[in-house]
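JOB MANIFEST
job_type = single_chain_structure
chain_count = 1
residues = 233
[input]
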Amino acid sequence: MEPLQSQGSMTDRATSALRSAILRGDLEPNTLHAVHTVAESLGVSRTPVREALIRLAAEGMVRVQRNRGFVVLRHSPRDLVEIFSLRLLLEVPATRAAASLATPDDVAALDADIARMRDAMAADDAELFLREDRQFHRTLLSISGNERLTEFVDSLRNVVLSSGVSTANRTESIGEILEPHLELLRLVRDGKPTEAAASMHEHLVSTGHKLLTQEFGDEAAASFADALGAYEA
Protein backbone atom coordinates (compact mmCIF):
# COMPACT_ATOMS: atom_id res chain seq x y z
CA MET A 1 0.00 0.00 0.00
CA GLU A 2 1.16 3.52 -0.79
CA PRO A 3 1.88 5.98 2.07
CA LEU A 4 -1.00 8.39 2.65
CA GLN A 5 -0.74 12.10 1.99
CA SER A 6 -1.55 14.55 4.78
CA GLN A 7 -4.67 16.20 3.34
CA GLY A 8 -8.10 15.12 4.54
CA SER A 9 -9.16 13.00 7.48
CA MET A 10 -6.55 10.35 8.19
CA THR A 11 -9.24 7.92 9.29
CA ASP A 12 -11.16 8.47 6.05
CA ARG A 13 -8.03 8.02 3.98
CA ALA A 14 -6.93 4.95 5.92
CA THR A 15 -10.40 3.45 5.47
CA SER A 16 -10.29 4.06 1.73
CA ALA A 17 -6.75 2.67 1.41
CA LEU A 18 -7.54 -0.45 3.41
CA ARG A 19 -10.80 -1.08 1.56
CA SER A 20 -9.02 -0.77 -1.78
CA ALA A 21 -6.21 -3.09 -0.63
CA ILE A 22 -8.75 -5.70 0.46
CA LEU A 23 -10.70 -5.48 -2.80
CA ARG A 24 -7.46 -5.79 -4.83
CA GLY A 25 -6.47 -8.87 -2.84
CA ASP A 26 -3.36 -7.24 -1.34
CA LEU A 27 -4.39 -8.42 2.14
CA GLU A 28 -4.89 -12.17 2.19
CA PRO A 29 -8.20 -13.44 3.66
CA ASN A 30 -8.24 -15.61 6.79
CA THR A 31 -4.75 -14.42 7.76
CA LEU A 32 -3.94 -12.34 10.83
CA HIS A 33 -2.59 -8.92 9.83
CA ALA A 34 -0.83 -6.66 12.34
CA VAL A 35 -2.14 -3.11 12.78
CA HIS A 36 1.35 -1.68 13.24
CA THR A 37 2.54 -3.24 9.95
CA VAL A 38 -0.35 -1.71 8.02
CA ALA A 39 0.14 1.64 9.78
CA GLU A 40 3.83 1.64 8.83
CA SER A 41 3.08 0.86 5.19
CA LEU A 42 0.57 3.74 5.09
CA GLY A 43 2.92 6.09 6.90
CA VAL A 44 0.43 6.90 9.66
CA SER A 45 -0.02 6.17 13.35
CA ARG A 46 -1.99 3.14 14.52
CA THR A 47 -4.99 5.22 15.65
CA PRO A 48 -6.49 6.00 12.20
CA VAL A 49 -5.87 2.41 11.14
CA ARG A 50 -7.72 1.09 14.19
CA GLU A 51 -10.59 3.51 13.54
CA ALA A 52 -10.68 2.44 9.89
CA LEU A 53 -10.85 -1.20 10.92
CA ILE A 54 -13.87 -0.48 13.13
CA ARG A 55 -15.65 0.91 10.06
CA LEU A 56 -14.64 -2.02 7.87
CA ALA A 57 -15.72 -4.49 10.54
CA ALA A 58 -19.16 -2.85 10.52
CA GLU A 59 -19.25 -3.40 6.73
CA GLY A 60 -18.46 -7.09 7.24
CA MET A 61 -15.09 -6.93 5.49
CA VAL A 62 -12.81 -7.68 8.46
CA ARG A 63 -12.86 -9.14 11.96
CA VAL A 64 -10.79 -7.28 14.54
CA GLN A 65 -8.97 -9.38 17.15
CA ARG A 66 -8.23 -7.21 20.17
CA ASN A 67 -4.52 -6.71 20.85
CA ARG A 68 -3.66 -9.07 18.00
CA GLY A 69 -4.67 -7.52 14.69
CA PHE A 70 -7.36 -8.16 12.12
CA VAL A 71 -8.48 -10.78 9.63
CA VAL A 72 -9.94 -10.12 6.17
CA LEU A 73 -13.04 -12.30 6.02
CA ARG A 74 -13.50 -15.00 3.42
CA HIS A 75 -17.23 -15.54 3.12
CA SER A 76 -19.25 -18.75 2.97
CA PRO A 77 -22.04 -19.80 0.57
CA ARG A 78 -24.57 -18.79 3.24
CA ASP A 79 -23.03 -15.30 3.42
CA LEU A 80 -23.40 -14.85 -0.34
CA VAL A 81 -26.99 -16.09 -0.29
CA GLU A 82 -27.85 -13.62 2.47
CA ILE A 83 -26.12 -10.76 0.63
CA PHE A 84 -27.97 -11.41 -2.62
CA SER A 85 -31.24 -11.80 -0.72
CA LEU A 86 -30.72 -8.33 0.73
CA ARG A 87 -29.80 -6.93 -2.67
CA LEU A 88 -33.02 -8.33 -4.12
CA LEU A 89 -35.06 -6.78 -1.33
CA LEU A 90 -33.44 -3.38 -1.86
CA GLU A 91 -32.34 -3.02 -5.47
CA VAL A 92 -35.46 -4.33 -7.19
CA PRO A 93 -37.91 -1.78 -5.70
CA ALA A 94 -35.24 0.94 -5.92
CA THR A 95 -34.88 0.21 -9.64
CA ARG A 96 -38.65 0.45 -10.04
CA ALA A 97 -38.56 3.87 -8.36
CA ALA A 98 -35.57 4.99 -10.43
CA ALA A 99 -37.32 4.12 -13.69
CA SER A 100 -40.33 6.18 -12.55
CA LEU A 101 -38.28 9.19 -11.44
CA ALA A 102 -35.37 9.35 -13.92
CA THR A 103 -34.81 12.69 -15.62
CA PRO A 104 -32.92 13.19 -18.91
CA ASP A 105 -29.86 14.15 -16.83
CA ASP A 106 -30.15 10.90 -14.87
CA VAL A 107 -30.31 8.89 -18.08
CA ALA A 108 -27.28 10.79 -19.37
CA ALA A 109 -25.36 9.82 -16.23
CA LEU A 110 -26.24 6.16 -16.77
CA ASP A 111 -25.21 6.50 -20.42
CA ALA A 112 -21.84 7.84 -19.27
CA ASP A 113 -21.38 4.87 -16.93
CA ILE A 114 -22.14 2.49 -19.79
CA ALA A 115 -19.65 4.29 -22.03
CA ARG A 116 -16.92 3.77 -19.43
CA MET A 117 -17.89 0.10 -19.12
CA ARG A 118 -17.54 -0.22 -22.90
CA ASP A 119 -14.11 1.44 -22.78
CA ALA A 120 -12.97 -0.99 -20.08
CA MET A 121 -14.34 -3.89 -22.12
CA ALA A 122 -12.45 -2.69 -25.21
CA ALA A 123 -9.26 -2.57 -23.12
CA ASP A 124 -10.06 -6.03 -21.67
CA ASP A 125 -9.56 -4.51 -18.21
CA ALA A 126 -11.76 -6.60 -15.93
CA GLU A 127 -10.82 -4.67 -12.78
CA LEU A 128 -11.74 -1.31 -14.33
CA PHE A 129 -14.89 -2.82 -15.82
CA LEU A 130 -16.05 -4.01 -12.40
CA ARG A 131 -15.47 -0.56 -10.93
CA GLU A 132 -17.60 0.99 -13.67
CA ASP A 133 -20.23 -1.76 -13.23
CA ARG A 134 -20.39 -0.81 -9.58
CA GLN A 135 -20.74 2.88 -10.45
CA PHE A 136 -23.62 2.10 -12.81
CA HIS A 137 -25.49 0.44 -9.94
CA ARG A 138 -24.71 3.38 -7.63
CA THR A 139 -25.99 5.86 -10.22
CA LEU A 140 -29.14 3.84 -10.83
CA LEU A 141 -29.94 3.40 -7.14
CA SER A 142 -29.24 7.05 -6.34
CA ILE A 143 -31.92 8.06 -8.86
CA SER A 144 -34.44 6.47 -6.48
CA GLY A 145 -33.59 9.26 -4.03
CA ASN A 146 -32.56 6.99 -1.14
CA GLU A 147 -28.89 7.64 -0.44
CA ARG A 148 -28.80 5.38 2.63
CA LEU A 149 -30.00 2.50 0.48
CA THR A 150 -27.37 3.32 -2.16
CA GLU A 151 -24.56 3.32 0.40
CA PHE A 152 -25.77 0.15 2.09
CA VAL A 153 -25.99 -1.79 -1.17
CA ASP A 154 -22.51 -0.58 -2.07
CA SER A 155 -21.24 -1.94 1.26
CA LEU A 156 -22.84 -5.31 0.44
CA ARG A 157 -20.85 -5.38 -2.78
CA ASN A 158 -17.71 -4.73 -0.71
CA VAL A 159 -18.41 -7.88 1.28
CA VAL A 160 -18.62 -9.99 -1.89
CA LEU A 161 -15.59 -8.43 -3.56
CA SER A 162 -13.45 -8.65 -0.41
CA SER A 163 -13.49 -12.42 -0.97
CA GLY A 164 -12.01 -11.91 -4.43
CA VAL A 165 -15.24 -13.19 -5.94
CA SER A 166 -16.25 -12.12 -9.44
CA THR A 167 -17.52 -13.87 -12.55
CA ALA A 168 -15.65 -11.46 -14.87
CA ASN A 169 -13.63 -13.43 -17.44
CA ARG A 170 -14.26 -16.59 -15.44
CA THR A 171 -17.87 -17.79 -15.54
CA GLU A 172 -18.80 -15.15 -18.11
CA SER A 173 -17.12 -12.63 -20.38
CA ILE A 174 -17.11 -8.89 -19.76
CA GLY A 175 -19.45 -8.53 -22.74
CA GLU A 176 -21.94 -10.93 -21.18
CA ILE A 177 -21.87 -8.93 -17.94
CA LEU A 178 -22.51 -5.73 -19.88
CA GLU A 179 -25.73 -6.98 -21.52
CA PRO A 180 -28.13 -6.76 -18.53
CA HIS A 181 -26.87 -3.24 -17.81
CA LEU A 182 -27.75 -2.19 -21.37
CA GLU A 183 -31.23 -3.63 -20.82
CA LEU A 184 -31.62 -1.75 -17.55
CA LEU A 185 -30.55 1.50 -19.20
CA ARG A 186 -33.06 1.00 -22.01
CA LEU A 187 -35.93 0.34 -19.64
CA VAL A 188 -35.09 3.32 -17.42
CA ARG A 189 -34.80 5.55 -20.49
CA ASP A 190 -38.18 4.31 -21.74
CA GLY A 191 -39.80 4.89 -18.33
CA LYS A 192 -40.83 1.27 -17.76
CA PRO A 193 -40.59 0.73 -13.98
CA THR A 194 -42.20 -2.73 -13.80
CA GLU A 195 -40.01 -4.12 -16.57
CA ALA A 196 -36.89 -2.46 -15.10
CA ALA A 197 -37.56 -4.03 -11.70
CA ALA A 198 -38.01 -7.45 -13.31
CA SER A 199 -34.77 -6.98 -15.24
CA MET A 200 -32.85 -6.11 -12.07
CA HIS A 201 -34.35 -9.16 -10.33
CA GLU A 202 -33.22 -11.42 -13.18
CA HIS A 203 -29.76 -9.81 -13.23
CA LEU A 204 -29.17 -10.30 -9.50
CA VAL A 205 -30.47 -13.88 -9.43
CA SER A 206 -28.35 -14.81 -12.44
CA THR A 207 -25.22 -13.20 -10.99
CA GLY A 208 -25.71 -14.81 -7.59
CA HIS A 209 -26.28 -18.24 -9.10
CA LYS A 210 -23.14 -17.99 -11.26
CA LEU A 211 -21.03 -16.83 -8.31
CA LEU A 212 -22.20 -19.66 -6.06
CA THR A 213 -21.62 -22.25 -8.79
CA GLN A 214 -18.21 -20.84 -9.62
CA GLU A 215 -16.93 -20.59 -6.05
CA PHE A 216 -18.71 -23.42 -4.23
CA GLY A 217 -20.24 -25.79 -6.78
CA ASP A 218 -23.65 -26.91 -7.99
CA GLU A 219 -24.98 -27.88 -4.55
CA ALA A 220 -24.43 -24.38 -3.17
CA ALA A 221 -26.03 -22.89 -6.27
CA ALA A 222 -29.07 -25.14 -5.80
CA SER A 223 -29.46 -23.93 -2.21
CA PHE A 224 -29.24 -20.37 -3.49
CA ALA A 225 -32.07 -21.01 -5.94
CA ASP A 226 -34.19 -22.53 -3.18
CA ALA A 227 -33.52 -19.65 -0.78
CA LEU A 228 -34.42 -17.00 -3.36
CA GLY A 229 -37.55 -18.70 -4.65
CA ALA A 230 -39.75 -16.50 -2.45
CA TYR A 231 -38.28 -13.24 -3.76
CA GLU A 232 -40.45 -11.98 -6.58
CA ALA A 233 -39.65 -9.10 -8.91
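[summary]
The radius of gyration is 19 Å.
The longest helix spans residues 77-101.
exit_status = 0
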